[in-house]
């Protein structure tokens, strides 16, 4: 059986430039507005397709180097294409941020937008690493998402996935167990995103081990769509095949369709697909 277009999209995380307009892209200027003075080296962690790096280079001629660390080779390739006009002002490296390796640069700004939840529960390692690598006086600008969660730790995208699984025949009450199935296997359990994101209080405790919180800003990320298909593509480009492995391969194309339908239904009921608090933390390493 051949994979559907949306399954291929999920596997390669493609279509993000378009999909991220719905939610993540709004972090970019919000974060870059917090950069002060004339930075020389900026490091973006989980740099995706290079959108933040490009804006930073355009905004700050002082930047001699904009560095991206990213796990997905497809995303690095897309970023390299996008950033080609900036020549040797750009360096992109494939990296797993849960096991960060030493880096030769001492950035005066480190950014990380819409990424930290993917590093749960190992965020400590990258936080300590950022503290060690920032240049004196430098800042770490971090955005974190905080969907409400239920007693099973599910919320945000998990809720839409739950609706999709129910539409495909699952009992609503059994969905937390479907997420947890396979716990202990390398590719087994799907940790709910609302658990990965932690609460603001929990995260504040973690950050304060390594950083002094200089300021915080809060906004609500509200997602609206034009049709169900738009959300299927947003889900595939953002979450890849993270959730689709909850269903057998033969049901996956249908799964992406069902997530889009669930989003469209929700917008009909509530006026939006999702409405989620986002926090921007401006951090300085502890002395
Ligand atoms: C939601 S996207 C955000 C991309 C970009 N920062 C933005 O704001 O649009 C999350 C990114 O984190 C990357 N990522 C997830 N886990 C990672 C890890 N362990 N190491 C490096 N990158 C990771 C993904 O490949 C993806 O590009």
UniProtKB/TrEMBL annotation:
One example GO MF annotation: methyltransferase activity
Gene3D superfamilies assigned: Vaccinia Virus protein VP39
SUPFAM superfamilies: S-adenosyl-L-methionine-dependent methyltransferases (SSF53335)
Methyltransferase found in the keyword field: yes
Keyword Acetylation set for record: no
A Gene Ontology BP annotation from the UniProt entry: methylation
InterPro entries: Methyltransf_12, SAM-dependent_MTases_sf
Ranges for domain Methyltransferase type: 43-140
Alphabetical keyword list: Methyltransferase, Transferase
Domain of life: Bacteria
PANTHER family in UniProt: MALONYL-[ACYL-CARRIER PROTEIN] O-METHYLTRANSFERASE, METHYLTRANSFERASE
Name of the protein described by the UniProt record: Class I SAM-dependent methyltransferase
Native organism taxonomy: Bacteria, Bacillati, Actinomycetota, Actinomycetes, Kitasatosporales
């Amino acid at each position: 059986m051949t994979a559907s277009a949306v399954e291929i999209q999920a596997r390669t995380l493609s279509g993000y430039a378009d999909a991220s307009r719905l939610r993540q892209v709004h972090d970019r200027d919000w974060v870059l507005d917090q950069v002060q003075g004339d930075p020389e080296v900026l490091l973006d962690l989980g740099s995706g397709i290079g959108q933040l790096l490009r804006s930073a280079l355009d905004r700050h001629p002082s930047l001699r180097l904009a560095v991206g660390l990213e796990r997905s080779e497809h995303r690095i390739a897309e970023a390299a294409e996008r950033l080609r006009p900036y020549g040797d002002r750009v360096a992109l490296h494939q990296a797993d941020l849960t096991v960060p390796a030493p880096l030769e640069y001492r950035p005066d700004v480190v950014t990380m937008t819409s990424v930290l939840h993917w590093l749960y529960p190992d965020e400590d390692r990258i936080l300590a690493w950022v503290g060690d690598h920032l240049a004196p006086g430098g800042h770490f600008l971090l955005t974190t998402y905080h969907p409400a969660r239920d007693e099973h730790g599910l919320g945000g995208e998990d809720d839409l996935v739950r609706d999709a699984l129910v539409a495909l025949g699952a009992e609503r009450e059994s969905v937390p167990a479907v997420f947890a199935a396979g716990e202990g296997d390398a590719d087994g359990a799907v940790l709910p995103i609302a658990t990965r994101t932690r609460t603001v209080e929990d995260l504040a405790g973690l950050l304060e081990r390594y950083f002094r919180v200089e300021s915080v800003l809060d906004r609500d990320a509200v997602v609206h769509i034009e049709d169900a298909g738009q959300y299927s593509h947003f889900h595939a480009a953002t979450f890849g095949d993270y959730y689709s492995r909850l269903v057998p391969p033969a049901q996956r194309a249908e799964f992406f369709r069902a997530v889009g339908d669930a989003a469209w239904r929700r917008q009909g009921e509530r006026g939006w697909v999702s409405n989620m608090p986002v926090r921007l933390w401006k951090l300085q390493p502890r002395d």
